[in-house]
Structure formats: structure tokens, C-alpha cells
Write a structure and sequence with these properties.
With about 800 residues, the chain is of the alpha+beta class. Among the domains are: about 110-200, Arc Repressor Mutant, subunit A (Orthogonal Bundle), CATH 1.10.10.10; about 675-800, no CATH class. The chain is built from 24 helices and 29 strands. Strands 1-22-18-21-20-19-9 form a seven-stranded mixed beta sheet, with helices on both faces. Strands 11-4-3-15-24 form a five-stranded parallel beta sheet, with helices on one face. Strands 14-13-12-16 form a four-stranded mixed beta sheet, with no helix packed on it. Helix 4 crosses helix 6, helix 10 packs across helix 11 and helix 10 crosses helix 12. It is globular. InterPro entries: Amino_oxidase (IPR002937), FAD/NAD-bd_sf (IPR036188), Flavin_monoamine_oxidase (IPR050281), Homeodomain-like_sf (IPR009057), SWIRM (IPR007526), WH-like_DNA-bd_sf (IPR036388).
């Protein structure tokens, strides 16, 4: 909603500021209808080019069932109420004693002293009463500390809260200035520019925002940036870079955008549902940029309800008294490990051990959960931790596994109706994305960057690499020169884990609509993460969809199992739970098993802090190299928000701002857009009258010799929508015959494929043209100028 008319803040001394209204993997396996007759479909399954249907939220029962009667209550015999649970990654905030005390004191101070605008600023990551490192680096105030800084923070918070109150419109600087006293215009200019350039305001996918962001915010061109990867980080970085005046080209190995965010429409027998095979839950909505995108799209968020009943291996509901007792014991074990690590860090800062080893040691010493049922319950909680961190307890750093806890975004955990690919498609729209371009090599140096992808060569001033940590660990991309040892060590130390899913579409909802999750226990310790947790997506996916999670060691073994067997085991678990209650578990309409570990564009799911690593490694991974030529983004570069979709989103914004800072510092100095270089201007004039034009392609023919084997200069315009930031043109030398053959092919994508695969030709930027190309350009210019002179002479002769 719009803010009401706000009184101007009295900035010196500062009283309370104005208060606004608060505001897959490509090798997944699909199975369909009759499992006993089904076969594995190993082919890629690309998402439909349709928008997933939005379901009505909080509906008590999915109504898409073809059955006329409602299924019986699925939990009639549960002893006691279901317990509240959540994906537990965060338990204790103490990275070390001093930091935790400071964090607690800071939050207490916030609760007591800060107004709504300050709380909004804090929710998006700003400190209470100091500047961020980025603000200091941007020189937002002349002197750090003192009254000017205090006034700046009030102004910054007000501008931020003002836009957050209505994220569907572009907040102009003049509108931001309306409720601030005119003598503080300088602070408004400083705060507004910082928030705009760093993507804290005026971002997202509302039509006015998208339209404005496809034009540079000033009249300067700042060079070309190649973006590797079209996941959240890459898409967000590219959009912001276009707005900041850069030309961009996105190289994506898959044939779709989104990376580890993948939504697929499952359907059959009159039912359908949108299933998220990768990133699915918004973990905390307060300050979350994805929450802003949901508001802009008008999507109602569905809070993941904390009620999560647990079931024994034979399907019986877990006794509530035992459940409570084990949960208390589990929490006490974590508390003891917390104290141990504090003591260890204080005594010997370099010591680290696996979190799982420490927990098991305390369990044995204090004789916790020695009965079989209690041990199974404890293992369920450990599986939940393995899910949250995408790895085995034996891999997690006891000292730093939850180092991001102090930065966790508050608020509910939520589902997005229709799946998260709704965001992906909106962010990818109108951007110049080259699909099917697997990057093999990145060369960087003082004169720019060259990226080699699928037989093509892309040149630019800078490159931002957003590939998953798993790809960096695998060494799939060669960097020339090699990455600094400091960065290679961080890549090695950080962990990259695995989580898999089995998504099953049923003909109707037999499990009921009163819960979003339920859990299943197992007797096998090593398989505690196999189908230990089920998510019901009926209220948001558009149909009766269940997703079973596979975590820890089970996630690794899962990828070696037959998908038919995996689905059968899920169905057996469901039958053990529901058949004794008189509820028939129907045969699935369709089932899909993910294989993220085998995905060559990911090699896993998300990052974690491994033994011997720390949060500092995220920062090292985020550092640029090559004197500001090669940048890195993605969830594994976010110390505050790793392993999250919003962490990837924010890292893209961060690197766009870093690239702008470097470009401004270097004299890749912005050039006035109205003053192109003479060479580019002359070449543009020649291409105003090409010898051949088709789609985004145009060609100039060498006038001598004039035959099919003569050389032609081919130009390809990349990204129709980035016109206002200056078109990005790439060039290649081909024969006249090849140019004619390209013109006879339908579609630019097919032409690009022919150019690369059939002709073996790479596209380059204007600066990458060879002397032979320059010679041809000279010949064409001379030929055309002679033609113009001849025509002028003919006209003069006729008039005389």
C-alpha cells in the first residue's frame, strides 16, 4: 500500500524518523501411470512453456479428486496432537561467545528502540546504527560516525521503507525527497543512489520496474559483461547490469533458465500439479527479495505449517510422550555441543571436529536415547539436520556449521503457488541468454576476458561466474591464469551436498489437507534420511502432489537405485501409514525421481560448512580476481544466506554493484552514449544497408571477388530488449555461400547452432575482429564510397 503523507524527519538532532506502513536436474526420471508396466525415461524433461496454475491457499482439502466422497481423516488414531517442527538448520547462534552476545544485545536493542522503518532496514540486512562496508566504500557520508551518519541512516531507512510499502511502482528520487527537509537533499541523493545501484529498491518484475530496468539509469555505457549461468544469481546480475549501463550476454549450459530451481508440470488422468524439483521453500519471508517478487506478481504465500506428525516404521503414530522426551534430549545434546565448541574456540581456535562425532559422543556419555524407539526418533531429528545442510552429520563442522544463523531472515517459511519457476521465467524475460552453451574455459587479463563455450568464443570486459560450487569443485571450467591458491583452497574446504526428491502425483488427495508435512522413522541408522519427510503441495501446486525427501547418506545411495524401486518403497511407507486407518493409497498418476548428484551442471544441491571450513570461505569464494576482471556469485558466495534461493538472488545484486564500482574506478570509464567511437559508427553505417538480412543476422559481402567463395562479414544482434542500453553485436567471418545457407534456416537458435556446429565458426566482439576482417571492411567502405561518387557524377552529368 502507499504510505500516508509523512512529516519530514527532524534530522539534527534525530528524533524518530517517518514511519511507513509495515509492510533438477536434467537427468531426473519420470514414471507414469502403472508402475508395474512403467519404464525409465532417461531423457531430459523440459518445463512446459505455460504458467503453472495457482491453487487456492489454505484449502482444507484438495478438490481435484475424481472421487465423489471425501477421504476419511488420515490421523484419527494419532496419540496426542502432532508436534510442531521446522526444517532445523538453526539451533544456536553462538559462533563464538562475543559474537553471540553482541547479536543478542543488538536484537534486544532493536526490539526496544527501533521504529518500523529501522526494522525494515534491519530485515534486509542493514545494521542498526552503523554503515555497511559497501556504504563506507561508496562514500555515502563525508565522515564515518557523527551526526551526518546518523542523519544518513534515518534518510536511508525512510527511502527503503517507502519503496517497500509499494513495490509495484518505481520510486523516483524526487518522490523520495518529498518527506525529507530540503536542507538534507545531499543525504537523499547519496542514500537514493546507493540503494538504487545496490538493488535495495526498484528491483523485481512488476511491469513498471521491468520496463525501467531495461534502460540504463544514466547516459553512460560501461562495457560488456559475460554472465556464466542463468540461475537466480546470473539472471539478477544481468538485469541489474543492463540497468547500470553494461551490455550483457548470458551463457547457460542447459536448455532452460533457473539452474537448481526447476518446476515441472506433472499431469495425467485429469489431474495436474506444478512440482519444484530443486529450490522450493522460501526460508523466512521478512526482508526476502523473493517475497517482493511474489507481491509484485500478486501471488499469495502459503505458510508451511509447523504441525508434523511422525510415524513408526510399521506405520503407527509415534507416542507423543516419547516424542516430547526425545526432542528435549536432542536439544540438550545440541546445547552441550554448543558449550563444547565455545570452550574449544576460546582455547584452541584452529580445532574442529565433525558435528556428528560430537553429538554421538555426548549421547553415549549421557546415555541418551538408548531404547530403540527413542533412538529412531533421535535419528529422525539428525536426518532433519542432514536435510537442512544437504550432507551427513560426519561432514559438518562442529564449530561453524550454522555460522549464518545470526543473519537468518525472520518470518514464516512459505511455498509459492505454482512453483518457483514463475520467478525464473519473469526474471529471464527479454534477457540475451545463449542456451546450450557449456563453458569450458575462461581467460582473463588486463585487456578483458574471453569465454569459450560449446565451440564459440565470447569476448567482454568482465565476466561473472555463477556456476554451482559443485562445478567449481569438479574443475569443469578451466581458468587462465589459474585461480589464486586462496580461492582454490576455499573451493576445496567448503562442502557441497546432496538432497533428492521423489515427487508423486496422485489421482486424489488421500492424506488430508490439515498438514503440510509428516515424517517417517526407520530402524536402519544409515538410511535414516530415506523418505524421512513428506511435503504436501496440494494447496499450492494445483493438484494432489506429495514430495518425499531423501537426505544424508540415503541421498547418495538413492541415485544408484532403480527409480521404479524408489517409488515402490515410498508407496509401501504410505500404505503402512494409511491402510490401517481404512484409507486406500491409490496408484500414482506420475512420479519423478531427481538425480542432482549426477547433474553435470550442478553435481549436487547446495553448500555447507564442512569440517575445517568456516564462513570466511564463503567470502573468499565471493572475491573477484584478475584485478576486477573475474567475479563470482551464487549461494555458495553468500556468507549470510548460503544454501538459499534468496542468497543466490542477493549475490547477483552484490556482484552487479561490485562490477559497477570496479568499472568506475578503472577507466573503462563511462563513455557518453551519444559518442560512439568512429570505427563502430562507420561499421554501423555499413550495416544499415546490409547485402543480406535475416532474423537477428545481417551480412556484408566482399565486393572483390564477387563469388560464393568470397568472404563475408556476419553480424548478429543479441538481445532485442536491451536496445536502450546499446545493442550487443557479435561478428564472424564466413563465406558468402555460408551466409546464404544460414539465411535459408528457420529461427535464430537453429542458425546459431549451424554456425557453431556445422561451420565451426565462433562469434567475437568488435575488438576481436582480425586484420582480415578490417581489410574487408575497408574494401566495402571504398567500394560504397566509389559507388556514391559515381552516382553523384551521373546525377551531375544529367543535370548539366
Amino acid at each position: 500500500m502507499e504510505t500516508t503523507a509523512d512529516p519530514p524527519p527532524q534530522l539534527s538532532p534525530p528524533p524518530p524518523p517517518p514511519i511507513s506502513e509495515p509492510i533438477s536436474p536434467e537427468n531426473d526420471v519420470a514414471l507414469s501411470p502403472q508402475l508395474n508396466n512403467s519404464s525409465e525415461d532417461q531423457s531430459s524433461s523440459l518445463p512446459k512453456e505455460t504458467t503453472p496454475e495457482t491453487a487456492v491457499l489454505e484449502s482444507p482439502e484438495d478438490s481435484s479428486s475424481s472421487h465423489q466422497h471425501a477421504p476419511p481423516d488420515p490421523n484419527p488414531a494419532a496419540p496426542g496432537p502432532p508436534r510442531k517442527r521446522r526444517r532445523r538448520k538453526k539451533f544456536f547462534t553462538e559462533i563464538n561467545g562475543a559474537a553471540s552476545i553482541a547479536a543478542r544485545n543488538r536484537r534486544n536493542d532493536v526490539a526496544k528502540d527501533c521504529d518500523v522503518e529501522a526494522l525494515i532496514a534491519i530485515s534486509v540486512g542493514f545494521p542498526v546504527d552503523s554503515l555497511t562496508e559497501e556504504e563506507i566504500e561508496a562514500n555515502v557520508v563525508s565522515t564515518v560516525g557523527g551526526s551526518e551518519q546518523t542523519n544518513y541512516i534515518v534518510v536511508r531507512n525512510h527511502i527503503l521503507a517507502r519503496w517497500r510499502s509499494n513495490v509495484d511502482v518505481w520510486l523516483t528520487r524526487d518522490r523520495a525527497l518529498q518527506s525529507i527537509r530540503s536542507e538534507h537533499k545531499g543525504l537523499v541523493d547519496s542514500a537514493y543512489r546507493f540503494l538504487l545501484e545496490h538493488g535495495y529498491i526498484n528491483f523485481g518484475i512488476a511491469p513498471p520496474i521491468k520496463e525501467a530496468k531495461l534502460k540504463p539509469f544514466d547516459d553512460f555505457e560501461r562495457g560488456t559483461v559475460i554472465v556464466i549461468g542463468a540461475g537466480f544469481a546470473g539472471l539478477v546480475a544481468a538485469r541489474q547490469l543492463v540497468f547500470l549501463g553494461f551490455k550483457v550476454a548470458i551463457l547457460e549450459g542447459r536448455m532452460r533458465p533457473g539452474g537448481r530451481v526447476k518446476t515441472k508440470k506433472m499431469m495425467g488422468d485429469g489431474v495436474e500439479a506444478a512440482a519444484d524439483f530443486g529450490g522450493s521453500v522460501l526460508t523466512g519471508i521478512n526482508g526476502n527479495p523473493l517475497g517482493v517478487l511474489a507481491r509484485q506478481l500478486g501471488l499469495p504465500l502459503h505458510k508451511v505449517r509447523d504441525l508434523c506428525p511422525l510415524y513408526m516404521p510399521d506405520g503407527r503414530a509415534v507416542d507423543s510422550d516419547i516424542d516430547s522426551r526425545v526432542e528435549v534430549s536432542f536439544n540438550k545434546l545440541l546445547e552441550r555441543v554448543c558449550k563444547l565448541r565455545q570452550d574449544m574456540i576460546e582455547e584452541v581456535k584452529s580445532v574442529d571436529v565433525p558435528l556428528g562425532t560430537a553429538l554421538e559422543a555426548f549421547r553415549r556419555v549421557y546415555k541418551v536415547c538408548e531404547e530403540q524407539e527413542e533412538r529412531m526418533l533421535l535419528n529422525w531429528h539428525l536426518a532433519n539436520l542432514e536435510y537442512a545442510n544437504a550432507t551427513l552429520m560426519s561432514n559438518l563442522s562442529m564449530a561453524y556449521w550454522d555460522q549464518d544463523d545470526p543473519y537468518e531472515m525472520g518470518g514464516d517459511h512459505c511455498f509459492i503457488p505454482g512453483g518457483n519457476e514463475i520467478f525464473v521465467r519473469a526474471l529471464a524475460e527479454d534477457l540475451p541468454i545463449f542456451y546450450g552453451r557449456t563453458v569450458e574455459c575462461v581467460k582473463y587479463g588486463s585487456d578483458g576476458v574471453i569465454v569459450y563455450a560449446s565451440g564459440q568464443e565470447f569476448r567482454g570486459d568482465m565476466v561473472v561466474c555463477t556456476v554451482p560450487l559443485g562445478v567449481l569443485k569438479k574443475g569443469s571450467i578451466e581458468f587462465v591464469p589459474e585461480l589464486p591458491q586462496r580461492k582454490k583452497d576455499a573451493i576445496h574446504r567448503l562442502g557441497f551436498g546432496l538432497l533428492n526428491k521423489v515427487a508423486i502425483l496422485f489421482p486424489y488427495n488421500f492424506w488430508g489437507g490439515n498438514i503440510d508435512t509428516f515424517g517417517h522413522l526407520t530402524e536402519d541408522l544409515s538410511m535414516r534420511g530415506e523418505f524421512f519427510l513428506f511435503y504436501s503441495y496440494s494447496s499450492v501446486s494445483g493438484g494432489p502432489l506429495l514430495v518425499a525427501l531423501v537426505a544424508g547418506d540415503a541421498a547418495i545411495r538413492f541415485e544408484m537405485m532403480s527409480p521404479v524401486e524408489s517409488v515402490r518403497r515410498v508407496l509401501d511407507i504410505l500404505k503402512d501409514i494409511y491402510n490401517p486407518k481404512g484409507i486406500v493409497v491409490p496408484e500414482p498418476v506420475q512420479a519423478v525421481c531427481t538425480r542432482w548428484g549426477k547433474d553435470h551442471f550442478a553435481y549436487g544441491s547446495y553448500s555447507y560448512v564442512a569440517v575445517g571450513s568456516s564462513g570466511d570461505d564463503y567470502d573468499i569464494l565471493a572475491e573477484s580476481v584478475g584485478d576486477g576482471r573475474l567475479f563470482f556469485a551464487g549461494e555458495a558466495t553468500s556468507k549470510q544466506y548460503p544454501a538459499t534461493m534468496h542468497g543466490a538472488f542477493l549475490s547477483g545484486m552484490r556482484e552487479a554493484a561490485n562490477i559497477l564500482r570496479v568499472a568506475n574506478r578503472r577507466s573503462l570509464v563511462p563513455v557518453d552514449r551519444t559518442r560512439n567511437t568512429r570505427e563502430s559508427d562507420e561499421l554501423n553505417k555499413l550495416f544499415m544497408n546490409p547485402d543480406l538480412k535475416f532474423g537477428s543476422f545481417s551480412a556484408l559481402f566482399n565486393p572483390e571477388p564477387n563469388d560464393l567463395d568470397s568472404i563475408a562479414l556476419l553480424r548478429v544482434k543479441i538481445g532485442e530488449a536491451v536496445m536502450d542500453s546499446g545493442n550487443l553485436y557479435l561478428y564472424a567471418m564466413v563465406s558468402k555461400k555460408q551466409a546464404v545457407e544460414l539465411s535459408q534456416v528457420d529461427g535464430d537458435e537453429n542458425r546459431m547452432r549451424m554456425l557453431s556446429h556445422n561451420f565451426g565458426v565462433s562469434l567475437v566482439g568488435r575488438k576481436g575482429l582480425t586484420s582480415a576482417a578490417e581489410s574487408i571492411i575497408g574494401s566495402i567502405k571504398l567500394s560504397r564510397s566509389n559507388l556514391i561518387e559515381a552516382e553523384n557524377g551521373l546525377v551531375h552529368h544529367m543535370n548539366s
